[in-house]
C-alpha cells in the first residue's frame, strides 16, 4: 500500500523547496573558492555540466522508483489472480474491483501510459537494490550508501556544533594551529580564579548534544513532519545567500573587482569537482521527497526548472565572490566578517552569516537521518510486511542506530576532514552516478521481462538510450581519477 496518506501529501512546489533545501547546503559555501582556483571559464562550463549530470541521474532514480512500483503492483495482481482461481465460486466485489484496476494497464499501447507505473509508494534506494540487484550488488550498494549517509550525518553534526562554538567562544589566537591546543583553549576570556574555565572542546560537545537532541527526534517520524521547519529555514537560507551576493555586488560596484581569477586553470579542477559533487547531491533522499507530492504529471519539467534555478544561483554566488574578494576562504561566510565592530548592522550580519551553516544543515539533517533509517530497515527487514514487526524493532531500534553512531563519532572526533574527503568524493560518486545508473539499467530489463514492451512508463527518463548510461559510467571513472589526484596533491 502507499506509504503516505493523502493528508500527509504536499504540492509539487513544496516538494521542490524540499529538494532545493537538500541540494543547497554547506557545499555551496565551498564553491566560490574552488571557482576562483579553476578559473571562471572552466568553472562555468564544469558547473553547468555537473548540474546536468546530477539532473540526469535524478531522472534515473525517479524512473527506477516507478519501475519498483510497477513490480509491486504486478506481484499484487498475481496474488489476486491466484486467490481468484482458488476461490472462483466467490463473488467478492472488492476483489473483483481491485483485480480490474490492476488489469487495465495490460491493454494499453505505446501512446497510453501504464497504470502499473506510479510514484505513489515510497520505495527507498535500498528497496530498489533488493528488487533489481543480485546479492553482490546489494552488498556493495548498502556499504556505499551507509558510509555516505553516516558520514553525512557526522559532518552535519560536527559542522553545526563548531559553528555554534565559534559564535559563543572568543576568537582563537592566530598562533594556535595545533588541534590539541585548540581543544584546551578557554572558550570565554575570564580572569576570575573561582570560575570554572570552560574549554572550547567542552562547549563544542554541549552544542553537539543540544543539536542532536533537537534534530534527532525527527528520525522517529516521516519527512512530512518537517514541512514547516523546511519552509522556515528555506527563507533563512535565501536571506543568507542574498546577503552574501548583495554585499559582494556592492563591493564590486564601490571599489571594483579585487579578485582577478583567470579563465582556465586545470590545476584547480579536482577541487572544483569535489565541491560540485557535494553541492548537487540529493539522489539518496529523492524517494522520500517525491512520493508525497501531489500531481506528478510534469515532475520531470519541475525538476529541470529546479536544477536550472540552483545552477544559476550557484553561478551568481561564485562569480560575485570570485571577483569581489582578492582572497577567498574555503568557507565563503568567513569573507564577510566586518572590520567595523561598532556598526550594529554589520555585527548582526556577521552573527547571522556565522550561523548560516546551522540553518542549512538543520533542515537537511532530519531528511538524511530518515533516509538512512528507511534504508537500514530495507536491509534488515521485509518492508512488504513492515507493520507485522513489533513496535520496539520497528519504531525505536532503527531510529536509535541511525543517530547514535554519528553522535559518538563526532563527540570524540571533532576533526573529521578525512571523513569529509572520503564521504564527499568516493562515496559521493557512487551515490550520485554509479548507483542510479546501474539501478535504472537493471530495472528496465527486469520490467521488460515482467510486463512486456507494450506497458509504457510515463516516468521514463528522457536519457533512456543506453549510450547515456555508458557515458555516466565513463564519467564516474574520470571523477574517481580526479578525486584521487586532488587527495594526493593535498598530501604532498
Fold and architecture overview:
The chain has helices at residues 12-23, 31-38, 40-86, 93-103, 125-132, 135-168, 179-184, 200-215, 227-255, 269-279, 286-290, 299-324, 344-354, 356-380, 391-412, 417-451, 466-491. The protein has 17 helices and no strands. The protein is 67% helix and 0% strand. α2 packs across α3 (40-86) and α6 (135-168) runs antiparallel to α14. With 492 residues, it is mostly helical. It has a single domain (6-491), classed as Amino acid/polyamine transporter I (Up-down Bundle).
Helix/strand/pairing class, anyone?
mainly alpha
Spans with pLDDT under 50 lasting ≥5 residues? 1-7, 97-113
CATH class: Mainly Alpha
End-to-end distance: 55 Å
According to CATH, the fold-level topology is: Amino acid/polyamine transporter I
Radius of gyration: 25 Å
* Total of DSSP H or I helical runs spanning 4+ residues: 17
CATH superfamily: Amino acid/polyamine transporter I
Strand content: under 5%
Number of extended strands:
0
CATH architecture: Up-down Bundle
Total tally of structural domains: 1
**Helix and strand pattern:** HHHHHHHHHHHHHHHHH
* Shape call: globular
The proportion of residues forming helix, as a percent range, comes to 55-70%
Mean pLDDT: 79
The major β-sheet equals: none
InterPro entries: AA_transpt_TM
Family: Belongs to the TMEM104 family.
Protein name: Amino acid transporter transmembrane domain-containing protein
Keywords: Glycoprotein, Membrane, Transmembrane, Transmembrane helix
Amino acid at each position: 500500500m502507499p506509504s503516505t496518506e493523502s493528508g500527509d501529501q504536499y504540492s509539487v512546489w513544496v516538494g521542490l523547496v524540499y529538494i532545493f533545501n537538500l541540494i543547497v547546503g554547506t557545499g555551496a559555501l565551498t564553491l566560490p573558492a574552488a571557482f576562483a582556483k579553476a578559473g571562471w571559464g572552466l568553472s562555468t562550463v564544469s558547473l553547468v555540466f555537473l548540474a546536468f549530470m546530477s539532473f540526469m541521474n535524478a531522472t534515473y532514480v525517479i524512473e527506477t522508483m516507478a519501475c519498483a512500483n510497477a513490480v509491486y503492483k504486478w506481484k499484487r495482481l498475481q496474488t489476486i489472480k491466484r486467490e481468484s482461481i482458488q476461490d472462483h465460486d466467490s463473488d467478492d466485489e472488492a476483489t473483483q474491483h481491485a483485480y480490474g484496476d490492476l488489469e487495465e494497464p495490460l491493454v494499453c499501447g505505446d501512446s497510453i501510459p501504464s497504470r502499473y507505473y506510479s510514484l505513489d509508494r515510497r520505495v527507498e534506494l535500498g528497496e530498489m537494490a533488493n528488487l533489481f540487484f543480485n546479492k553482490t550488488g546489494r552488498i556493495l550498494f548498502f556499504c556505499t550508501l551507509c558510509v555516505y549517509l553516516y558520514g553525512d550525518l557526522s559532518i552535519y553534526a560536527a559542522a553545526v556544533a563548531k559553528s555554534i562554538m565559534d559564535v559563543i567562544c572568543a576568537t582563537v589566537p592566530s598562533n594556535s594551529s595545533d588541534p590539541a591546543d585548540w581543544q584546551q583553549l578557554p572558550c570565554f576570556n575570564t580572569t576570575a580564579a573561582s570560575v570554572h574555565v570552560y574549554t572550547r572542546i567542552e562547549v563544542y560537545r554541549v552544542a553537539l548534544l543540544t543539536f542532536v537532541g533537537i534534530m534527532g527526534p525527527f528520525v522517529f517520524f516521516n519527512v512530512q513532519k518537517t514541512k514547516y521547519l523546511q519552509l522556515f529555514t528555506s527563507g533563512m537560507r535565501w536571506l543568507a545567500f542574498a546577503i552574501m551576493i548583495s554585499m559582494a555586488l556592492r563591493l564590486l560596484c564601490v571599489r571594483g573587482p579585487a579578485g582577478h581569477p583567470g579563465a582556465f586553470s586545470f590545476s584547480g579542477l579536482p577541487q572544483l569537482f569535489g565541491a560540485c559533487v557535494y553541492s548537487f547531491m540529493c539522489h539518496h533522499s529523492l524517494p522520500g521527497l517525491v512520493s508525497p507530492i501531489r500531481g506528478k504529471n510534469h515532475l520531470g519539467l519541475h525538476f529541470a526548472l529546479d536544477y536550472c534555478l540552483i545552477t544559476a544561483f550557484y553561478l551568481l554566488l561564485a562569480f560575485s565572490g570570485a571577483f569581489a574578494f582578492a582572497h577567498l576562504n574555503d568557507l565563503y561566510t568567513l569573507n564577510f566578517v566586518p572590520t567595523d565592530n561598532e556598526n550594529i548592522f554589520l555585527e548582526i550580519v556577521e552573527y547571522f552569516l556565522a550561523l548560516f551553516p546551522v540553518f542549512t544543515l538543520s533542515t537537511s539533517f532530519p531528511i538524511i537521518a530518515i533516509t538512512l533509517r528507511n534504508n537500514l530497515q530495507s536491509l534488515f527487514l521485509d518492508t512488504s510486511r513492515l507493520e507485522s514487526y513489533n513496535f520496539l524493532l520497528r519504531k525505536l531500534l532503527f531510529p536509535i542506530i541511525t543517530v547514535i553512531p554519528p553522535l559518538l563519532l563526532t563527540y570524540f572526533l571533532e576533526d573529521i576532514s578525512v571523513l569529509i574527503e572520503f564521504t564527499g568524493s568516493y562515496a559521493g560518486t557512487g551515490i550520485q552516478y554509479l548507483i542510479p545508473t546501474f539501478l535504472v539499467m537493471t530495472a528496465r530489463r527486469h520490467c521488460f521481462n515482467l510486463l512486456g514492451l507494450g506497458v509504457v512508463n510515463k516516468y521514463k527518463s528522457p536519457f533512456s538510450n543506453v549510450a547515456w548510461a555508458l557515458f555516466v559510467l565513463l564519467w564516474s571513472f574520470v571523477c574517481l581519477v580526479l578525486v584521487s589526484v586532488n587527495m594526493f596533491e593535498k598530501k604532498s
